[in-house]
Amino acid sequence: MSRLIKSNYSNVAQLKDLMTAPPMTAAQHAEVMRKRIAQRRMVEEARELKQACGAQFEKR
Fold first, then answer.
1. Residue 45 belongs to some domain of the structure
2. End-to-end CA, the chain
3. Using CA atoms, how far apart are residues 53 and 51, in angstroms rounded to an integer?
4. According to the lineage, what is the superkingdom (predicted)?
5. Residue 46: inside a domain, yes or no?
6. Full domain range(s) for residue 46
7. What is the pLDDT of residue 46?
8. How many other C-beta atoms are found inside a 10 Å radius of the C-beta of residue 39?
9. Count of domains forming the chain
């Protein structure tokens, strides 16, 4: 199966803006990671559900 590759160049922020922005706090980082993990779990569960449904139809 082909996988979609996320582009690393989709962010159009200026370098100066990135370099002068205050660093992320631990709480902000934790929230970002929780969202990322939740999204990944949803994708994995959907993939497993799709495979399980496909396996049911193949058995018939």
1. yes
2. 24
3. 5
4. Bacteria
5. yes
6. 25-58
7. 94
8. 10
9. 1
